[in-house]
Amino acid sequence: MSRAIRKPAPDTPAAVTANEPALSEAYSEQRPRLRELTPYLALMREHRGWLGIGALLALITLLAATGLLALSGWFLSATAVAGLSVAATQAFNFFTPAAGVRGLALARTAGRYGERVTTHEGTLRLLASLRRRLFEAIEPLSPAALQHAGQGELMTRLGADVDALDSLYVRVLIPSLVAVCAILAAGTLIGIFAPTLALVAVIGLVLTGGLVPWLAWWRGSRDAMRHQSSASRLRARLLERLQGLGELVIYGRWNEELERLAEQQAERDSIERAQARRQALASWLSHSLLGLTLAGVALLGVMQMAPYANNDMTMHSGELLDGRLMALFLLAVLGAFEALAPLPLAWQGLGRCLSAAARLNSVQANTPAAQFPNPSEAATPVGHALEIEQLSVTHGDTPVLEELSLTLAAGEHLALLGPSGSGKSTLLDVLSRFHIPSAGRITLGGVALESLDEATLRASFAVCPQDTHLFCASYADNLRLAAPEASDEALTRMLESLGLGDWLARQPQGLAGFPDEGGRSLSGGQLRRFGVARALLSPAPIVLLDEPCEGLDRTSAEQVMSAILAACEGRSLIMITHQPLGLERFARLALLEAGRLQEDATPTTLSRDSRLASLMERTA
Ligand SMILES: Nc1ncnc2c1ncn2[C@@H]1O[C@H](COP(=O)(O)OP(=O)(O)OP(=O)(O)O)[C@@H](O)[C@H]1O
């Protein structure tokens, strides 16, 4: 059995063991390096407008918030002190600081709003670019290359990993930048009046904003990576097992599977608990450092304090400090701390960003097996004759096709027979360039397949693989995948010719109806014929069909055969079949065994003792 897209290998039946998709093996216990982020930082340059404005507004908001706290603190204490004497009350200017407080409050609110709007706009644009890049990297990979990924793993990479990177800008870079500025702003503000106190405040804030986040990153990054890997494995396993739910229930393995899922979930939960403990520790550490800083500033300030009556607030060398400034100093430190508080959590999450970046980088590093030339450099085939010369194909180290040579004139119909596993579907994969041969040459219209640009190659072949996938779109849209211009009448005629007329008549919305996910609302035989209809509707000059009559009763199979041969009149056809049905209607018959072409003849030139002849007799 062969499919263009193979499902991951099944579990061993003895115990449904974990069979993780190959992509998750890219995860390693090693702490990912910062350089994994380089492509994403480069991507940020594309959106520097929004991201830059966001950063600027974040700074304005911070300065306004710190200024507001400091000014209000000073204003309160200065007002209280001024109230102690009538002369001081009359001399005190209430209006300028009050206007300053109002102005700073307005600036803080407007800044915060603008910052949220711009940083989110920038981040969403960044994520859109990131997803586009990822899709562009995945798209040229053949289904055969993606088969190793597993659906759950790929979904995680496209969803959770990309989302993890949005925290890089909003939760790590911006808060870190804001924190540095907050320390500088608080230090400068305090330093204007009391340089020694500023030094103490800056040392305390640097320890809080530098040491604690660094510890959180250093100690927490491994947990973040383990959590991401564990959550992704759990999601991939859950998805895969749900797809095979029927088999697991039938063979009584579902409860066992539930236990395994619960074990995996417990592993993920324990990592989450460890992360929560680290967060609590980091929070305790930064609040303790804040307390020490405040105490240090307060103690030193009290030691340098001047009597209240002194109206000259600046402290010249050798002079004492004005007590009214104490509230300003302490609130400036508190205001700056507001910017530092989210850093430990953010830096703990940096590990998640880095491992997401590493996993996405590994997807993007996949080079497509098939490289197509640019349309301007591509060759143009003359006609549609196919020539296969000495073709050898391996899967891993196992040879599948060996020195196979075959020609198909334009418009010729070939039935390809052979026992299961002889390499028939692999040949179709090679013609579609989903699989690259290890040796040999294939030409189409005199041009090597690899010299054709992708659009020409795809327009040359209509392929119906063994598994038909129905997309979540109307039946009509599913059929138009191969023939966008086809009218509803043409679609209906094609379905009727394949014996699907009654089925269509039973659909309440006809062609406008929607299939269940993946086409489960159709029986196996109906789904197969739907796939055949899709391929036959395509105007491609060469039609490749993989066992189109498999699973059909004799009458339906004969009807499908007739429809195929009628639709392929004037077009080349390679039809893989196990059923010796209607073979006499083919111009050519070929037999593939163990990857080698054993027989290649026309129905009339077949020798009576050939394997093909005996197959033909079974047809009659
Ligand atoms: N992606 C793959 N990875 C590894 N081995 C593969 C892969 N695809 C096919 N094979 C192996 O290559 C051989 C040929 O497979 P292929 O599907 O081409 O045979 P087939 O003649 O089409 O079989 P069937 O008639 O059962 O569909 C088989 O032994 C199969 O196990």
UniProtKB/TrEMBL annotation:
Residues 386-619 form the ABC transporter domain. This is Thiol reductant ABC exporter subunit CydC. The gene is cydC. Its main location: membrane. The keyword Magnesium does not apply. It holds the Pfam family ABC_membrane. Residues 56-306 form the ABC transmembrane type-1 domain. The keyword ATP-binding applies. InterPro entries: AAA+_ATPase, ABC1_TM_dom, ABC1_TM_sf, ABC_CydC/D, ABC_transporter-like_ATP-bd, ABC_transporter-like_CS, P-loop_NTPase, Type_1_exporter. It is found in: Cell membrane. It is a multi-pass membrane protein. SUPFAM superfamilies: ABC transporter transmembrane region, P-loop containing nucleoside triphosphate hydrolases. The chain crosses the membrane at residues 49-68, 172-193, 199-218, 281-305, 325-347. Keywords: ATP-binding, Membrane, Nucleotide-binding, Transmembrane, Transmembrane helix.
